[in-house]
Amino acid sequence: MAFSLDIRCHSEIGMVRKNNQDSGYVSPTMLVVADGMGGAAAGDLASTVAVKQVARADSRRQGEEMLTLLAGAVSAANDELADLVAWDRSLEGMGTTFCGAMFDGAQLGLVHIGDSRGYLLRDGALSRMTHDDSWVQSLVDEGRITEQEAAVHPHRSLLLKVLNGQPQHTPDTKLVDVQLGDRVLFCSDGLCGFVSDPVIERIVSHHTLDDAMAMLVTEAHAAGAPDNVTVVLAEIVPHSDELEAMEPKIIGAAEITAVPDHEVTAPLPITAADMAEQSAPRPGAPRPGAPRHAAR
Questions:
Q1: Residue 36 — very low, low, confident or very high, per pLDDT cuts 50/70/90?
Q2: Count of C-beta atoms within a 10 Å radius of residue 143
Q3: 117 contacts 186 by C-beta, under 8 angstroms
Q4: May I ask the CATH class of domain 3-295?
């Protein structure tokens, strides 16, 4: 049986930032959140590139085809970021997370890189579909700190993988089966970095989509909303011709940011030795060259 998505979305600057570097995209067949970073080096441009690349690829596919198409569009976005930096060196340092999925009526084809999160709510229980590509998450994985300690760690915004034009930063992909009544939440860390999973679970499981969206944003504000806040919330509902006819929507920075005309070049070659050097972690320290969210 094919299902449809009943979708709500929201993106805002928050209460501290001067501009919104988050972008998002929703359609009957795709849900996306991208959290740009780089501050003066155009995080808003980076998230816009990611969202506009995948929006152009949006179409009805099934199963593994969804992963192939969406991962290919994300790769194209990464190549375009490399081209933009080569064209204008002042853009060096920009990057973006990506958390998105295509939907075929029965499964989500999920593609993820960075620390924007994808959650699945089923039977009142919230679980993460994604794994943060962050230094503190690596410490949690190694048993060196707890999830509670990670939430307040001074380096919790340090990422190990993002889209920033570097070819070695590849996203994770997987297929997720859905059931009638499931809810899917994609968000930037302007929400999940300041509002705990138990609070998110309580809100998403006990309220209508409209009320849940409003309450999630209210909780982010109560935490000070020090970062941009972007949320995509959807419920798996019976097939609906009306929902299937919904017009795609771009939110956040990508609504107003234009990608400048630029030269298109092939990605710069990278040797195996270069990749090993760049990816090898130093004992007790983040990996070299990892971008910081604090620079957004």
A1: very high
A2: 7
A3: yes
A4: alpha beta
